[in-house]
Amino acid sequence: MVTGNALTAKYWYECGYKRKRASDITGSLDAFRQSLKLNPKVAAPWVGLAQLMDANNQLEEARQCLQQAAMVEPNNVMVRQLLASSHQALGYVEHAKREFENALKLEPNSALTYCGLGLLLEDIGEAKEAANAYRKSLLIDKFQNEALSHLLGLGRHVDISSEIEQAKTRLEHLSLKDKALVGYGLGKAYEQQKNYPAAFMAYKTANNARRENTEAFNRKIFDRRIETMMDIFSAEFFKARQGWGNKSERPVFIVGLPRSGTTLTEQILASHEQCFGAGELSVLTDLATGTPDRLDNAAISWPESAFNLSAQQVHDLGEDYLIASGQRAPEAVIRVVDKQPLNFWHLGLVALAFPNARIVHCTRDIRDCGLSIFTQNFNSTQRWSTDLDDIAYYWQGYQKLMAHFKQVSGLKILEVNYEKTVSKLECQSRRLLDFVGLPWDERVLNFHQSERTVQTPSRWQVRQPLYQSAKARWRNYESYLTPLINA
Fold first, then answer.
1. Mean pLDDT of the chain, nearest integer
2. List of E strands, 128-265
3. Residue in 92, 88, 90, 81 with CA at minimum distance from that of residue 43
4. Which residue segment(s) compose the domain that 34 sits in?
C-alpha cells in the first residue's frame, strides 16, 4: 500500500530535481530534505543531496548522504558505485574498494563498476590490477571506451597490443566524446612505443574532437579578463584595504599552468607530517563567484564585486575557505595545501582574504608544459588546451597576470621550477619547506611511497622515485611544436 506521505515525498523529490536543473540550489536542497522528512527510506533524495553537496565541494557531507542512501537501499548498485567514488575522492581507499566489491556482488556483470575499480587501482599505483579491472569491463561491454582509454595508458606495465588494434579500428566511428577519450589513450600507447608521429596524430585527433564538441577559445574575452583583474586588483586597491583579511598562515596555494609540476610539489609537501595535501579544490572559485550572493546584489559579478566587500565580509570569506579546505585535514597539521593550478586567477582574493598565505608558483619549460597539456583530456572549460597556438597564447597571458600579482599583491610567492626540482630534489625540497615554515623531514624525499590517492593526470609520475623522462620530452615532437617553440 502506497501512503499519502510516500506520494508527497515523491512530489518533493521530483521538485528537487526540477529546481536543480533550474540552478535553484537552495530550493533543490529544501525539496530533497522535505522529501526525506516525509519518507526517509528511499535512496534517491539522499543521492540528490549528495550530488548538490559534491558540486559545492562539500565532499564529506556528500559521502555521508550516500552512506545514508546505502543504508536504506543496500542492494542499489548505483548507490554502491557512487559511494565507492565518494570514498575514493576523500582518500578512503579501503572503503572505496569494499564498495566496488559490494556493487560487483550485487551485479557481477557491471562494466561500469569494473571501470570504476580500475580507476581506483590506477590512482593508488596498482597498474596490473587496474589493467585487469579494465579488461573485465571491456569483456562485459566492448564499447566501454573510458576503460579502453585508461588501459591504453598502461603500456609501460602490461601488453596492450590487442587494445591498440581495437582502438585503431574503432576510432573514426566513435562519438566526439569517445573519440577524444580513445584518441588520448591511443596517443599514450604510441608514445610508449616511441612511435612519435603516430602518437602526435592520435593526440591531434583527440583534440580536434574536443574542439568540435565545445565553443572555441575566445582570445578577446581572455584578454579582457586579464585586464579587468589587473585594473581592479591594483596597488591602490590593496593599500586601501591594508590590515583586512584572516591572519591565518595555514593555507598554502600551489598555482601555475596545469602540467607544470604542481602534483609533484604537493606530494613533496604532503609527505611532511605537519602538512596536509587537500588536492585540487574549487573552493576559491566558488567563493569568488558567490560574492554577489554575499553582497545580496546579483547585478555585480566577480571581480567587480571585490570593490563592494566590507572588512567583515572579507574576514568571513577567509573563515569559509578555512572550513571548506580543511574539512579532511587532521587538527595537528599546520599547513593545508590547495593545489588547484588555475587559482592564479584568484590571487587577488587570496591577497585580500589571506595576506599571510604562502603561494608556490610552479613553472616549467613551456615546450614541455604545453606539449603535456596538449596530450591530456582536460574538462571542457579548458578550451585553450586543445590547440598549440591557443596554449602559447594562454601561457603569455598567464605570465602577464602572475607578474602583476607579484608586483602589487604583497603576497609571499616562491617560484619553483620543475626542471630544477627533478634535478636537485633535496635542495628544492629544503627550499620549499623553509618557505612554508616547516622543519626539515627526510620523508619528503620519498614522496613516491605515500599512500595518498592521486587523482590528477600526474598520478603515475609521482609514484616513481623521480620522474626524469618528462624533461625535454618536447624534442620527440619538435617538428610539430612551432607555436610553443616561438612562445
1. 92
2. 251-255
3. 81
4. 4-155
